[in-house]
Structures are given as C-alpha cells and as structure tokens.
Amino acid sequence: MPLLQLQRVDFSVGGPLLLEHVDLAIEPGERVCVVGRNGEGKSTLLRLIAGEIKPDDGEVRVQNGVRIARLAQEVPQDTHGSVFDVVAQGLGDLGALLAQYHHLLGGHDLAALGAVQARIEAQHGWDLDRRVSQVLERLELPADADFAALSGGMKRRVLLAQALVRAPDVLLLDEPTNHLDIEAIAWLEEFLRSANFALVFVTHDRSFLRALATRIVEIDRGAVTSWPGDYDNYLHRREERLHAQALDDARFDKKLAAEEVWIRQGIKARRTRNEGRVRALKAMRRERAQRRELSGNAKMTLATAQASGKKVIEAKHVEFAWGEKAMLRDFSTTILRGDRVGIIGPNGSGKSTLLQLLLGQIEPQRGEIERGTHLEIAYFDQHRAALREDWNALDNVAEGREYIELDGQRKHVLGYLQDFLFSPERARAPITRLSGGERNRLLLAKLFAQPSNLLVMDEPTNDLDVETLELLEDLLGAYRGTLLLVSHDRQFIDNVVTSTLVLEGDGRVGDYVGGYSDWLRQKPAPRQELPATKAQEPDSRLRVDDEQKAKRKLGYKHARELEQLPARIETLEGEIAARTQAMHDPAFFKQDGGVITAANQALAAQQAELDAAYARWQELEG
User: Fold this and answer.
1) Is the pTM of this model over 0.70?
2) How many CB atoms lie within 10 A of CB 576?
3) What is residue 20's predicted lDDT score, i.e. its pLDDT?
C-alpha cells in the first residue's frame, strides 16, 4: 500500500496551473527523483507532499502514522544554538525540552534541572533523547559545536540529522548536494542507499541521481509523469515520447489548418456547411489554444577577447598559510592558453585561496606566481556578489547599455536575455523575485557578455537544471580561452576539464591529467604503516602473502557464490529492462491502480536485488 498519494492535484501561483491533475503514489523503500526545468514546480511538489502548502484542487492522502520530513534547499537564516539544539528541534516542543535539559546539565540550578527532567519523564521523552544521540553519532556530528560556526556543508548535514531524528517514513530532499564537497556527497550517497525509508529528492547532480534513483518523476508543462527504472532509461524513453508528441502535434496542426481553410471558403461552402464539422473545428481551436509548448533551451553565447599569451599562469614553489594552517606547500604548476583546469578538494581545503593566488588577489608567502600577457578575466562567483540586489535582471546585464557586443555582432540586451530564458517581463522583475536557478542563469548572462580570454568559474552548477548544465558544458568545451573551474559536480568536471588540481590535505596539491574519474584511477593509494620488524621486507613478498591470505579467506561456498553472481546480475538486468519496457506501453496505465502499484513495487524490489548483487560481487572480489 502506498505511503502517500496525490490524487488529481492542481496548484497555481497565478497564471497557468503550475501543476495540473497530478496523480502520484510513493511506495515504501523506493528512491524517487523529481526532474524538470527550473520553475516547473519541483520544490512546490515537495512542499505539497510535506503538507506545507495545500493544493487548489484534488487531495494529498497520507497513510495514518506515516511521518514525512523535508530538508529544504537553503539553510534557514534564523537557525541558531548548538548542534544538539538544532537537531532536537526536529522533535518539536519535546525536543526543546531535551535541549534545555542538556544545557542545564553540569550547572548549579538543580531545581530547574529537576523540573525539566520531570516534564521529560512525564512525556516519556528519554527514548527520543537517545534517538538524538544516535543520529548525531551516525552522522558524525559534534553535539556541543555552535551551529553558526559550521561550514555550509556541515550545516546541511546537521539539518539532515534534524530531519532523520523524526524517524521519517518518507524523506524529502531538495538539492541536497548544494554546498557539499565531493567527499560529503559520496558519504550522503552511501548513507541514503542503505536507508530504510522512502526517498523523494530533487537534484541537478547527475552522478548523484544515477547512483540513487529507482524511479524518475518528471514535471513538464504542469503534467507529472512517472518513469520506472533508472535515469538513463528515462532519458531514452523521454526522447521517444517527445518525438512521438512532435509528430502528433504536427498532424493535428495540419488538420486544423485544413479546417480553417474550409471554414473560410465562400458562399458555396457555407450552403453545404456541416454543423458537426463546425463544432469539431471549435473544439480543435480550444485544444490548440490550451496546448502548452515545450520550454525552449537557453541559447548561451560566450564573448571572447583577443588571445592571451601562450603562458597564462606559472607558479613556482608557492607556499601559503592562514595562521598555523598550511594551505599550499611547495606548489608549482604551469597553465597554458587553452587549458581547462579543474580544481577539487574538500570544503575548507583552500580552493578559493588557490584561485586568489593564481589571479593575484593575494600574494604567496614564499615562491612566485607569474601571469601572462593580455589577460582579460571573467569571474563567476558562487556567492553571486556580482549581482546588484537593487537592480533588476535587465539592469544587471545592460549596465546602462541598450546593446551588447558579442564577437563583433550587436545584440539588444532584451533579446540577449531571452536566450537565457528570461522573458521581457521576467527581465524587468526585481532581482529579489528570482529563484536560485534564475540567479545563476543571470550571472552567466552577465559573465558571458564580458569579453574574456581567462574564464574563472567557482561552483557554477548550483541550482541549474540539467538541460542548462549540458548546454554550459558544450559552451565551455568550445571556449577559445583558458578555463579555471571549481566544482563538486563530478560529471560536469569529467565533461569539461582537461586537467585537475586536487587539494589533497596538509598543503599538498596533486596535478593530474583528465577529470574527476581520471583522478580516481591515478591517485596514489593511502599509505599504510608497516610494523617496524617488517619494514624491510620486499614489496613483492608482501603482495604474494596478501593474495594467499585472500584466497584462504574465500572458502568454497563463497567462491561458488562469486562464480554465479555475474549470470544472476545479467538475468536481473534483463528482467528489469523487459518490465520497464512493458510499463511504458500506454495500455499499462489503463489498468487498475492496484496492478500499477504492484508492478512498481516489483520493479523496485528487482532493482534493490540488483543493487545488492553488485554490492555482494564487489565484496567477494575484494
């Protein structure tokens, strides 16, 4: 039985319905990713499920006893207190009592402590106190740390703990990877894969999406459709559907055009006019008027300046520290014209410091950095500081101009902004009314109107929809200048950069050819300390010993299991593909709702079995 259902739900914020006739069920244990363009209503759908807003029409039905928790897209500004306090807030009034009790512990006000303790006991709250402690331990969070002093990534982890402490049956996550570094994203992936609750999430991170989703729910022009299976299957089926829809629309438009010609014929046609045909034409006109066109893709253009010198930046034996913390030790690199360099590392490891040094915004404490000639730099700032809050989108890009120059061609600013999916009305709207994705697109529009031959982008992917991300990848691939890119989006890095600087801790910076996946293959294995008595043994002997131990450890039963797993995985993949194909037949959705639910559950179970088989295969091979 579904944990919750949306039945014929409508929702609008003025104008056309944002969500129209939505039918959706969430089953236990499944991981559903909601996809769609910026502004299509993904966050709104999550808020409807959470009960934070009510539909204009239709119903959101939640099973008795089902708990729903939501992690919002942005960290609330009024969140304060210790980590324990913030996590306990997820338990409401009882959580506030538990936080008060922990603050009084170790103090001298025994009367107040006793009073709070009595109230907790009266509400049987000690089990919840243990639950808070268990969640903090599971997520490796310091209970007494000040929430305000934490990094953005750690704050997101605390808010996740706040959601988890409610022991939800359904967890809603809106862009959970924003402001997380790659290590934290990998941790979150693994945590969510092993969780026992249903997950509904929105993300622009395609690697994260592929790792987690067992079903895709798409929002497109108000309609919500469900696509069983993984993200790649959805992409393939979506292309097929859009092609079929385009053919149907073309046939419809051709027939409508013919009927319009007929109705406008002279006296002879009117004498023989078929009133039924007239009514059918009126119905066709209404249907055509109600058709919602597919949103266009952004058509971004990047202005380039004259070429820089061949050598763009050269660093020699650079060292830099903030106080006692070493950020760079003996760092050297050469960046040549046309290089596309990715910079990755944990939050706080010094990525922004490295950028500032390379660009000359701060000076090294030792060593030297030389910058080449004729550099024209355009900088994408992840904090969007380049946007003026008291200006609208048009003013932020135009800066008093009516036209901008793009590679020798003049273009009106309004037309240029339309290429970035800003209608004239939206371009003139106050910037405070823009969503996170719109602000990022606006910053790209402002940046790309500026001629450059060195493009510096600090976390440009946050809040962008997947289509815009893919277009940005193509644009950067064709950029004739030099690119410095800081990003936590693993696929974006793989698709854009030609080399990677990795901040590996303690001031060390590794220089690798290729993107994130190439770094994973090239990076050195973690050092393992050997006992002092074994320190001089040859490496080859150690390897032989390890292999013999591994073989002895894998007995006949497990060896047989390992031998049979590839065939089992192949069978499961075939069954999942066949079931998914059958579920995309239009006739499938005409069946009874119980049959559709059972089919979704069976597919989710097969997907879980396949995940387990892959995990077991990796475990046995290791």
Assistant:
1) no
2) 20
3) 93
